[in-house]
Amino acid sequence: MQDDLFGDAAPPPPPTPPGKPDAPASESPVPRRRRADDVRPAAHGPELAALATALPARLRLGSSSWSYPGWAGIVWDDHPYTDATLSKHGLTAYGQHPLLRSVCIDRSFYRPLTEAQFERYAAQVPDDFRFVVKAPALVTDAQVRGEDGKGRQPNPAFLDPALAVSEFITPALAGLGDKVGALVFQLSPLPFVQLQRLPLLLERLRTMLRALPDVRSATPDGVVAVEVRDPEWLSPTVAPQLAAVLKETGATYCLGLHAKMPRLAEQLPLLRALWPGPMVCRWNLNPLHGAYGYEDAQREYGPYDRIHDVDADTRALLVRTACGITGAGQNAYITISNKAEGCAPLSARALAEGVSAHLAQRPGA
């Protein structure tokens, strides 16, 4: 979870004490300490800039959060930043990376964000940057969970239309404005009894989505997306019903690449059923670690400064899908977790290189 980006501003540096009366005139001034909020980007050479220029304008790559000291020399300069410093002050430097034109705000899942908080995010990134934002668990989790993550009791606010609007859509639209990308309702893993009642949940989902403001009309590139974490949603009987609900309400399906879910190739038919439309993908966890291997990936991949496990199949299919969708004039958002391959910005670069190579092979390129 991301730390609060909007803590109190760093206090101004103390005034430089006057020199001693007998100090020689040639004595060099004592250098000021670097301010805590002075996070500087890594030096990005012409090769990276040229790669960014070769990408489709409608393709936006990014990471899941940005508070990782291990990205030194990749996203930040080599200064030893803490994760807390980067969480609070690193977004501006992140936004200067040529390939990272999006980011997923995960902390909104744990606590709803205000319009002012969203507005401060938007002020720190370029005009063509777009945010992917997770809706709060308040409305997307069927259970109220304890600190250990285990469900304690049913959540009475699950898929509540009024809360979805007031606690998520309205402040996100007002605060992010034209920088809204995908507003994602990630439906957390359901208890067994709920999984037996998916048609009923689909009707509740339909009711909630119908109640939302028209995000596509309100923003240049915005879309509401629904991500699921139970494979039962993609069964032959349920998937067509889910597609019908999404199409009717103007929402799309978020490709959730997580080990608990089927691989990308098995999720794409649902996206095809919604064509024409945008692509929203959150590449979360390498399947090598299994359905419950998030903590294992966290231990093995930290400090997230290099690629550990290349997921070649996912890379290749993401490249082809993104090229096809953007080539047809639709937006594509792909945000990547460090747990996908070990280092999200380097995975983004690998995808960018794949897209560039794929486009170069097209006739007439």
TrEMBL record:
InterPro entries in the record: DUF72, UPF0759_sf
Annotated region described as Disordered, given as residue ranges: 1-44
Pro residues bias locations: 10-21
Pfam family name, one: DUF72
Coiled coil: none
Domain of life: Bacteria
Protein name listed in UniProt: DUF72 domain-containing protein
The organism of origin for this protein: Hydrogenophaga electricum
Native organism taxonomy: Bacteria, Pseudomonadati, Pseudomonadota, Betaproteobacteria, Burkholderiales
